[in-house]
Specification:
By secondary structure, this protein is an alpha+beta fold. It is built from 3 helices and 4 strands; from the N terminus they run ββαβααβ. Strands 2-1-4-3 form a 4-stranded antiparallel sheet.
Length: 100
C-alpha cells in the first residue's frame, strides 16, 4: 500500500525529502505550490498527527516515523523566518504497509 515521500525546497534553495506513512500530505499540500514556512510547519504537524492516529488505530501504537518526520521539519524550518517561503516540489509514492 502507498506511503509517500515529499520533496521540499527551503528558502535558501536547499532541498530535503520527508517521509509520511500516509497519503494525508497529498490532501493538504499540492506539488509545485509555495507556502509560508510557518504555515508549512503547522500544516505538516496536522498531517503527521493524522498519520500517527491512523497508524495507532490500525496497529494499536503510534508511528515513530511521523514523529521523526515532524522533528526533521521543525529543525529545518527553524533556520528561516515564518514568512519566508518553502516549495513542495513533488510527491513520490512508495509501496508500504499503509494506506493510513
Amino acid at each position: 500500500m502507498p506511503e509517500v515521500l515529499f520533496d521540499v525546497r527551503w528558502p535558501d534553495g536547499s532541498t530535503q525529502s520527508f517521509y509520511s506513512p500516509s497519503l494525508i500530505v497529498e490532501e493538504y499540500f499540492r506539488a509545485g505550490h509555495t507556502y509560508p514556512v510557518g504555515d508549512f510547519v503547522d500544516t505538516s504537524r496536522t498531517c503527521m498527527r493524522i498519520a500517527d492516529q491512523r497508524v495507532r488505530q490500525k496497529y494499536g501504537f503510534g508511528c515513530a516515523q511521523s514523529v521523526a518526520t515532524m522533528a526533521g521539519i521543525e529543525q529545518a524550518a527553524a533556520r528561516f523566518a515564518a514568512d519566508e517561503h518553502v516549495t513542495l516540489e513533488a510527491f513520490r509514492r512508495q509501496a508500504g504497509a499503509g494506506p493510513y
